[in-house]
Amino acid sequence: MPSSIPDIVISRLPVYLRALERLSHEGQEVTSSHELGKRLGISSAQIRKDLSHFGGFGKQGTGYRITYLKDQLRQVLNVERDWEVALIGAGDLGSAVARYRGFSNRGFHIACVFDSSPEKINKHLGEFVIQPLESMAAVIVERGIKIAMIAVPAESAQSVADTLIGAGVRAILNYAPINLNVPDNVHVQYIDPVIHLQRMTYYLE
Amino acid sequence: MPSSIPDIVISRLPVYLRALERLSHEGQEVTSSHELGKRLGISSAQIRKDLSHFGGFGKQGTGYRITYLKDQLRQVLNVERDWEVALIGAGDLGSAVARYRGFSNRGFHIACVFDSSPEKINKHLGEFVIQPLESMAAVIVERGIKIAMIAVPAESAQSVADTLIGAGVRAILNYAPINLNVPDNVHVQYIDPVIHLQRMTYYLE
DNA sequence: TAGATTGTTAATCGATTAACAATC
DNA sequence: TAGATTGTTAATCGATTAACAATC
Lengths: 205, 205
Hints:
Two copies of one chain form a homodimer.
Chain A: H1 7-25, E1 30-31, H2 33-40, H3 44-52, E2 64-65, H4 66-77, E3 83-88, H5 92-99, E4 108-115, E5 124-125, E6 128-132, H6 133-143, E7 147-150, H7 154-166, E8 171-174, E9 187-190, H8 193-201
Helix pairs in contact in A: 1-4, 2-3
The first copy, chain A, binds a DNA duplex (24 and 24 nucleotides) through residues 6, 8-9, 32-34, 43-46, 48-49, 51-52, 56-64.
């Protein structure tokens, strides 16, 4: 029963971690489930319950020491180490992702960038040299990369995903607005701004 | 009881709509809850249950006519009309969002772009002229804009949100990696790639 | 000690699934 | 008609919340 913890619990841990990073950035050293809950719009009971799946991180009467809880959550989430991530697609979106400064202090860094269009190959993108799609599988196997971000057009996303998975990638963050079919042992997350917008327009007017 | 439909149901409708658009793009005219469910990794019962909140859109024996179901979902989600969206922040991320071609055929278009840094004001960004943050409230009130996307640094996100809400914005898509405090009648959605990545590393190794 | 807050249990609440009559 | 698939009900499953003893 090593992994009987509900995925919905896992999905909240990074949010807790981000809030804790914010709090310590603001100079705070201790917090409580109530304070955290108020910031996040979540009940304090839920936060305590979620955390209790992994151990007793707090102290009655005083709450949680932020540095300690941060470390514990990082350990649970497996982001104490630094993960190499492959980026596929060097268009507008891919370029923005490549230049994004927010990965490095949160457990990730982009290791390589690939694109299919011949005129982009060997061009620089920030600190990276864009490599051809044909080299992708080999590079990923060689470096043992397990995480990839897909920022190619919807039409090519599935075939890129297939190649990635064949090369050993186990987690995909997909920016293309399309659902991917992947084996059970591969994880996929989606980022599609329109999905979020449409979810809100339901409530408007 | 106009809005007793669970938010979790609403959150799946845009995903259904996207899959239907894909199917009709592929030339298909009819689908079933089974086919849709298989594509999305969702049970067919859940799809039928979700849709049944809004009416009977299918036919026993044959399934759903795709064009019809698409239209119905667009109506439910309130994206038959076109929504004007304000974009705040013209850095790397904001620029990529501004250039993104995926909004227009799905119910949204960017109407104006704002940034705080003096050297960007009046510069062009794609088809837009970057306007100063000081004009933001006035422009949003005047145009009656209800939706905004925040792509500014975490430090300024909350104060930008406060101004937006004061100007009448009711839905915010926040790209800044920070939780926003907003009144109950304002909707917020978050896009933070690191949250998604951290959710997957839990399962790796 | 008095006050505060945890971790946990039990109760509540809500969402998903299974099953099937209705019907195209 | 036979086969397929819907919409819906009831049963199951799982997640959230309330409450409180333990204790800092």
